[in-house]
Design goal:
By secondary structure, the protein is an alpha+beta fold. The chain has one domain (22-278): Endonuclease/exonuclease/phosphatase (Deoxyribonuclease I, Chain A, 4-Layer Sandwich), CATH 3.60.10.10. The chain has five helices and 13 strands. The protein has helices at residues 44-58, 70-80, 165-180, 199-205, 213-216, and strands at residues 22-28, 62-68, 84-90, 99-105, 109-118, 138-146, 152-159, 186-191, 211-212, 219-220, 242-246, 251-257, 273-278. The strands form two sheets. It has a seven-stranded mixed beta sheet. A hairpin with an 8-residue loop joins strand 3 (84-90) and strand 4 (99-105). Helix 1 (44-58) packs parallel to helix 2 and helix 3 (165-180) packs parallel to helix 4 (199-205). It starts with 21 loop residues before the first strand and ends in a 14-residue tail after the last strand.
Length: 292
């Protein structure tokens, strides 16, 4: 397994990972925007080949992506190929606009069930919004079975409101309630649009319900970089808005922010976040009683 190179290197941060280890990755793709100046770092036509290189080099077993527009979704599926199973939805009432997606390496895990819901009091109503949210926020949830180990586990992918702290904390409380109702190990990952010292992070990790993979990891692949670099070089102490949270007895060998640059260019304004984990053999992950 490759350990992260320095900032700006184009080598993989983690790369293909053999069982029983499971490589999980979250990546805010950055939505395609019209009328951007030619040659600008935000142009999708410039970034798409870089995204393809990133995904080919990392080959995660489970990939969560955010801010995916419908045309980008089709390109992303083509980049990943037939080996990956995609589950996702757009956020608005027609299930269009920005999408949240989970892509599962079908050679490694099978999808047992899936659920699409919205951060609101009417979670099954497409496009519904929670308190303080400017836009609807969709959640993608799957239960997987690891073909290599037999472990069954849940993955929840999110893109939380960036404009309202009230909406962010409300989303964290809704996620906590869902996680508390699940049996077995859980991974919650995505762009939370909040720092790791925020009330939202505290809500999800309170009582040991979940732990930050970065905190639990035996080895970190970065020297404290933030995950939002805005196409610049990664910055120690920068804003870490993208997290991977896991059940407390997951064994996390490696975690952190990858910062590949291809010819000096970044694939997105966010850098990908990785974790390599494994579940306890022969039993379900246990949660502290106070977290239930």
């Amino acid at each position: 397994m490759t350990v992260a190179p320095g900032a700006g290197d184009d080598r993989p941060t983690i790369g293909p990972t053999p069982a029983p280890d499971l490589h999980v990755m979250t990546f805010n793709l950055r939505r395609r925007l019209p009328a951007l100046r030619p040659g600008g770092p935000d142009r999708w036509s410039r970034r798409a080949p870089l995204v393809a290189r990133l995904l080919e080099s990392e080959s995660p077993a489970v990939l969560a992506v955010q801010e995916v527009m419908p045309d980008q979704s089709a390109e992303l599926a083509a980049m990943l190929g037939d080996r990956y199973t995609a589950i996702g939805s757009g956020r608005d009432r027609r299930r269009g606009d920005e999408r949240v997606e989970i892509h599962v390496d079908a050679e490694r895990s099978s999808v047992l069930s899936s659920r699409i819901w919205w951060m609101s009091d009417r979670p099954d109503v497409p496009g519904s919004r929670g308190p303080g949210a400017l836009f609807a926020r969709v959640v993608v949830q799957v239960e997987l079975s690891d073909r290599a180990t037999g472990a069954r586990f849940h993955v929840i992918a999110v893109h939380v409101d960036p404009f309202s702290r009230r909406a962010g904390l409300d989303s964290a409380r809704r996620l906590r309630a869902v996680v508390e109702g699940l049996d077995g190990p859980v991974v919650v990952l995505g762009d939370f649009n909040a720092r790791d010292d925020s009330p939202s992070h505290d809500e999800l990790t309170r009582g040991g319900l979940l732990v930050d993979a970065r905190t639990a990891a035996d080895h970190l692949v970065d020297p404290g970089w933030g995950s939002w670099s805005h196409y610049g070089p990664p910055r120690p102490g920068g804003r870490r808005l993208d997290w991977i949270l896991v059940s407390p007895d997951a064994e996390v060998s490696t975690a952190g922010v990858g910062a590949p640059r291809y010819g000096g260019a970044a694939a997105s304004d966010h850098d990908p976040v990785h974790a390599v984990l494994r579940w306890p053999a022969g039993r379900e992950a246990e949660r502290p009683p106070e977290a239930r």
